[in-house]
Amino acid sequence: MSPEELASFARAISNFPQQHIDHLYQLLLRLQETHVDPDLDLIRSEYHALSSEDGNDTLPNDPYLQWIIDLFNSDAHSSLYTNFLDVLDEAHIDITDAGTNTDVETDHGRHAGPMVASWEPQPAERSHSPDTFNEHDPRWRQAIALDHRKLASQALEAWRDGLQRKREAILDYEDARANEFADQFYHKTLARKAVSHWRNTVKEMQSLERVAIEHRARKDAIAVLTSWTLGAREGLFKRVRDERLLYASLGMWQGKVDTIREMQQKADIQYETHVTQQVLVKLFTTTSQLQQDQTQAALTYKQMLSRKILRLWRAQLNNLGALERKRESLMSTFAGRHVLRLWYDRTRSQIDEKQALLAREQMLKVKFFRRWQAYVKQSKEAKYTIAYQRMRRKVKVGIATAVLTNWRQQVSKIRRMREVADEFQARQNAEAEHRLALVAIMSMYNKTQQIGDSLQQAQKFRREKIIARLEIFGNRWLLPTRQIMVNQRTADNYHSIKTAGYTLSRLRSWRNVTYRVKRLEDDADRLTQRNERKRTADLLQKWRRGAIKWDSENQGIEERLLPVTPAARRSQLLASTTPASTPASALFRKTRALKGHRQEDED
Length: 603
Description:
The protein is an all-alpha fold. The chain has a domain at 1-119. 85% of the residues lie in helices and 1% in strands. It contains 12 helices and 2 strands; from the N terminus they run H-H-H-H-H-E-H-E-H-H-H-H-H-H. The chain has helices at 3-13, 18-33, 40-54, 63-74, 80-90, 108-112, 138-172, 176-470, 478-553, 555-559, 566-575, 584-602, and strands at residues 93-96, 116-119. The chain has a two-stranded antiparallel sheet with strand order 1-2. Helix 1 crosses helix 5 (80-90). The longest helix has 295 residues, at 176-470.
C-alpha cells in the first residue's frame, strides 16, 4: 500500500465512531479464525452476521463496510489484518484487546468484550533537548502495545498451525478402504436416486401431456361448436331485422309520398296568387319612388355645386396669404443669420490668436522649468547615492560581523546537542534489540519444549500401535507391519513438510522482527530530525529577536542614513527643513501659486 492510500484510509477512519472501529476489529478477528483466505462475499456475510448479533440493522450502502472492502481491494499481496493495523497506526488510534495475549483463544466473546478503541491525537510538541524524552509518551506506549499485539497474533498463528497439523494427521490416519467403499456407495445411491427421479419426472410429464392434449381437444371442439352456433344465430337475426326494416321503411315512404303530393298542389296555388299580388304592389311603389327621387336629386345637386365652388375659392385665398407671410419671415431670418455668422467668425479668429500667444508663452515657461528641475534632481541624486553607499557599506560590515559570531556559537551548540542525541539513539537501539532478543529466545524455548513433548507422545503412541497391530504373540503380523511401514514413511514425509513450514514461519517471524526494528529506527530518526528542526527554528527566532533589538538600539544611526526606496526618499525630503533638500513638489506648488496670482492680477 502506498503512503498516499495509507494516509487517505487513516483520514477516513479517524472520523468513524468508537463502536464502529470496534465492530471492524471484531470482523477481522472472525475472518482470521475461519482459516480461509477472505474474499468480498465472506467479508459481507461476516459483517451482516456480526451486525445482526449486535442488534444493528445494516444499510444497503454501509460506509463502514465499503471502507473495509476498499481496504481489502487496495493491497492484494498483504493480509487485511496487517493493513488494518497499519491504518490504525497511521491514524494514531490505539486498540487494546485484553483477550489477545499469549493464551490465544478463539472465543468471540473474549475478543468482543474488553476491546477499547480510543482516538489520541498528540500535538507535535518537541522538547528543546532529547534528554527530556519520556518513555511514558503516548506514542511510545502505542508502539509497545502494537508490538505486543503483533507478537500475540504470531502466537495465534503458531497455535493455528499446530491445530491444522493435528487435523491433517487425523485425516491421514483414516481408513482408505472405508472411504472408498463409502464413496462407491454414495455414487451408486446418488445414481439410483437420479435415475428414479428422472423416470418419475418423465412419467409425470407424459401423463400431464396426455391430459393437456385431451383438454385442448375438448376446448377446441367446444369453441368451434360455440362459434358456429353463434354465427348461425347472428345470420338469422340479421335477415329478420333487415326484412322488418324494409317493410317499415316502405310503409313510411308511401305515406310521406302521398302527403308531399298534396302539399305540393296547395303550395303551387298559394305561390301563384302571392307572386301576382307582390309584383303589382312592387311595380306601383317603384314608379312613384322614382319620380320623387328624380325631383329631390335635381335640387340637391344645384345646392352642393354652389357650396363646393365657394369653399374652394376661400381655401385658395387663405393659402396665398399664408405663403406671403412665410416668405417675409424667412427673408428676415436669413438676413439676421448671415450677419451673425460674419460677426462670430471675426470674433473667433481674434480669440484663437490670443490663445495661441498664451499657449506659446506657457510652453516656453514649462520647458525651461523642467530643464532646471532635471538638473537639480540629478545633482541631488548623485550626492545622496554617494553618501548612502558609504554608510550602507559600514552597516553591512557590522551586521556580517555580528551574524558570523552568532552563527559560530549556534554551530557549537548544535554539535553538542547532536552528540547527546546520538548517545540517546544508541541507548534506545540497544534496549530495543535486548527486548527483541529476549522475546525471540522465550518463543524459541517454548516452541522447542512443545516439539519435544509432541515427539515423546508420538513415540509412545507409535509403540502402543505397533504392539497392538503386530500381534507379536500371534501369527498374522506381516500385513500390519507393511501398513505400519507405509504409515511411517507418510509420517516422515509429513514431518519433513511441517519442519519446512516451521522453518518458513521462523523466517517470517524474524522478518517481522527486522521490520519492527526498522520501523523503530525510522521513528527515532524522524524524532531526531524534528528535534533538529525545532532547535533550528528556536535559533532563528532568537537571531530575529537579537536583530530586532540591535535595530532598535541603532535606530538613530539608521535614521541618519539615506532611505532605499523612492517613497522613503520623498518622505525624508518632505520631513527635512534645510534649503538643500527642499522637495520638488514644494517647488511645484510655489510655482503654481505664483502663476495663479499673476493670472488673477492680469484679470
